[in-house]
Amino acid sequence: MFTLQIEHAVRDFRVWRRAFDSDPLNRAASGVVSYRISRPIGQDNYVMVDLDFETQEAAVFFLAKLQDEVWTTGAAASALLGEPTTRVLETLAVVTVRAPSGPDVS
Question: First-to-last CA distance in the chain?
Answer without folding.
Answer: 39
